[in-house]
Amino acid sequence: MSHNEPNNHAAGIPLEAHVAELQSRREAAACLYDGSTYYREECEIFKQYAREKNCSCAYPPEEINRTPDDEGNEHQVWFDEANAAFVKATWPDFFGLLVMQRPHEDDKASPIDYLERRQLHNELFGDAIEFLGVLEVDGQMRLLIRQPAIAGKPATLVQISDFFTQNGWERFMVRDELAFFNPIHKVAISDTHRGNLILMEDGLLAPIDLRVQPLEGVLLEQVQMLCKKAST
Questions:
Q1: How big is the CA angle at 68 (ends 66 and 70), to the nearest 5 degrees?
Q2: Residues in the chain, pLDDT under 50
Q3: Phi and psi at residue 147, in whole multiples of 5°?
Q4: Which residues lie closer than 8 Å to 24 by C-beta, 6 or more apart?
Q5: Residue 64: helix, strand or coil by DSSP?
Q6: Which pLDDT score is estimated for 156?
Q7: pTM, whole model, 2 decimals?
Q8: What's phi and psi for 188, nearest 5 deg?
Q9: Interacting residues of 212 by C-beta distance below 8 A, sequence separation 6+
Q10: Which residues contact 171 (CB under 8 A, 6 or more apart)?
């Protein structure tokens, strides 16, 4: 293992394997919570999983010991020149926001939601995000990922809209923000601003940091209604 690699078991497990096991545990817990799990329950499920799988980064990538190259609402970001990639660390105990949430549910994404989102990013958009592990900071969790760097420039809003609608995504509005729904995969995405979609030299667009959320039940029905409303 090189000095650039985190010293933990999680970095050697494919992201899809982490997500599959966490989804299984969430489904099992849902049976105990009247068919649903919420933010706090999912945080506890993840913490237990992280302890069992030794996901703690005793020696995280050396890049994060310097000033971040960029910061956003969800991450601090460092360029990893050796791997032509970015190392990203979530803010302490913050794992992004959901596209949609159930009534009386927190709009914060859980650690399970966060990793599920990264895996969907890989599946839907051909990304290659890796889960590197968990950093403990003053009793709070930060999740570490590595994402390949993509050369290009921010896409225009028109290019972003055309990219999704021409590939079968349906537009809708949520919290006064443009979002998209894929009726085949039953997935919604938001946070589709210019900084999250890169126009590459070949003219194609590469999504890099979208909110991605699988939908079922009442949330699926709600988004289908919003899409229908937006199309009329």
A1: 165
A2: 1-3
A3: -130, 130
A4: none
A5: helix
A6: 95
A7: 0.92
A8: -115, 150
A9: 99, 117, 120, 121, 124, 187, 188, 189
A10: 161, 164, 165, 178, 179, 180, 227, 230, 231
- Cβ–Cβ < 8 Å for 152, 198: yes
Distances (CA, A) of 36 to 18, 79, 146, 227: 20, 38, 31, 25
Token code pair at residue 98:
């959901």
CB 206 within 8 A of CB 197: yes
Q: Integer distance in angstroms from the first to the last C-alpha of the chain?
A: 56
For the chain, how are helix, strand and coil distributed in percent, rounded to 5? 35, 25, 40
Distances (CA, A) of 44 to 67, 112, 141, 195: 31, 10, 12, 32
Q: Report whether 100 contacts 174 (CB < 8 A).
A: yes
